[in-house]
Write a structure and sequence with these properties.
6% of the residues lie in helices and 40% in strands. With 437 residues, it is mainly beta. It is globular, with a radius of gyration of 29 Å.
Length: 437
């Protein structure tokens, strides 16, 4: 199901961040060697290095892509107390038979911070071209490009003072007009006495104000990464937090009469700390699957089941294989496992056919006799698909009273184009053939 491909990035020091563009066909990496590299994916799904340059005079912590509506634009932040905006330009006079030369140029350098800039993120496209940065001096700065055609001009719109040093931030990407612009910021402060390490800020049209601190869910450990799930219509927000473990917080509408801005609930928390410290969390485009990475060198995928319980569905090593030690926690419970507490505790010796059925269904043994008994009493359908076009044909009946297919009421017939289908009252297809035959 999953494939892993190794890329020799040839960075001379630790790689701190990897970012994909909007379409997932370009990738940027940054490192403590002060450089940024851009990779393009070819038709064979191989990653080819297309650009490499020295971006800062210190370790580069984060790199992020702007929405492609604004062109090929990157933002980076560094230990050298600056954030930079980079734009890719294509040469106008390529030689015959060659494509134009692509180069990345620095459009501007943001030098307002007096300490290390730890994270940088572009805002939602609906807000225009905005950029948020956070630094260890406890300040969130929001910049905006008034003219998207001139990325050399950026204005500092807001400065948000936080009480703790900032390590990471994330924008809420929501398509609902009922949700105002929102930013969540995390702190890697090691002092638990300083309170919650996550704060939520909302924009009220004039200024950014702090509306939630997540103190009710008790996140007092250093936060290394934070990510809002894409909101495609939910009435609540999902926030993933990377601390010593993985945590997912729900920010829902507050109850009537409550003075709180959100109804904050800790939806999921990793029960076993198999991955050690978690350093990165990232959502898929639908906000249904969360990926996390930790000290053990594995990537874990998290997904909510039908009971809205988040489970680890896969543990991947660097070679793409699933970790054998986590097979018990990497799969969601089946229907039988969830229903097991409500079933009778009486058991009996299983037959050979039931023993074959049990491992395939992954159900407790006490459920197998009841399921097998129900299956044995059900009539076996004798409609089976044969031939190239999977037509249904009658091959006999288990009913001794029928020498032909059971009679059907006329009201259960349905026609669709040239295809003639017969349905039972439960909606299952009994036969299908062309009306011309």
């Amino acid at each position: 199901m999953f494939e892993a491909h190794s890329i020799n990035a040839e960075h001379k020091d630790l790689i701190h961040d990897v970012a994909y563009d909007y379409y997932g066909q370009r990738m940027a990496t940054c490192s403590s060697d002060q450089s940024v590299k851009v990779w393009d994916q070819d038709e064979q799904k191989n990653w080819i290095l297309s650009a490499n340059w020295k971006a800062h005079s210190g370790s580069v912590w984060k790199v992020t892509w702007a929405h492609p509506e604004f062109g090929q634009v990157l933002a980076t932040c560094s230990f050298d107390r600056t954030a930079a905006i980079w734009e890719e330009i294509i040469g106008e006079t390529p030689t015959q038979g060659e494509r134009g030369l692509k180069t990345w140029i620095r459009r501007t350098n943001l030098v307002d911070s007096r300490t290390s800039v730890t994270d940088v993120k572009f805002g939602p496209k609906s807000l225009g071209l905005q950029l948020a940065t956070c630094s260890t001096d406890g300040v969130i700065r929001i910049y905006e490009a008034p003219d998207v055609m001139n990325l050399s001009q950026w204005t500092l719109q807001h400065e948000i003072q936080c009480k703790q040093q900032c390590s990471c931030l994330t924008w809420s990407h929501s398509f609902s007009r009922l949700h105002p612009p929102m930013i969540a910021v995390g702190s890697d402060d090691n002092n638990p006495a300083n309170g919650s390490k996550v704060a939520i800020y909302e924009y009220g049209g004039i200024r950014w104000t702090k509306t939630e601190s997540l103190a009710s869910v008790g996140i007092n450990e250093p936060v290394h990464d934070i990510a809002f799930a894409p909101n495609l219509g939910r009435s609540y927000h999902l926030l993933a937090i990377a601390t010593k473990d993985v945590r997912i917080v729900t920010l829902g509408p507050s109850p009537e009469g409550s003075s709180q801005r959100f109804d904050v609930q800790l939806t999921a928390q990793q029960d076993d700390n198999l991955s050690g410290t978690v350093w990165r969390v990232s959502w898929n485009i639908l906000g249904t699957i969360l990926a996390s990475s930790g000290d053990d060198g594995c990537v874990r995928l998290w997904k909510a089941n039908y009971m809205n319980s988040w489970k680890c569905i896969a543990v991947l090593r660097g070679d793409g294989t699933q970790a054998k030690s986590d097979t018990s926690t990497s799969s969601m419970p089946t229907m039988g496992q969830v229903a097991a507490p409500n079933q009778s505790s009486t058991t009996r010796q299983t037959t050979a056919s039931e023993q074959k059925l049990a491992p395939k269904m992954s159900m407790p043994k006490m459920l197998v006799p009841k399921i097998s008994a129900a299956i044995s009493t059900m009539p076996t359908s004798k409609w089976q698909p044969i031939g190239r076009f999977q037509k249904m044909t009658w091959i006999g009946s288990d009913y001794s009273s029928y020498s032909s297919p059971p009679p059907l009421d006329k009201s259960t017939k349905a026609f669709c184009g040239k295809t003639h289908r017969l349905f039972t009252t439960t909606g299952s297809v009994l036969s299908e053939h062309d009306s011309d035959s």
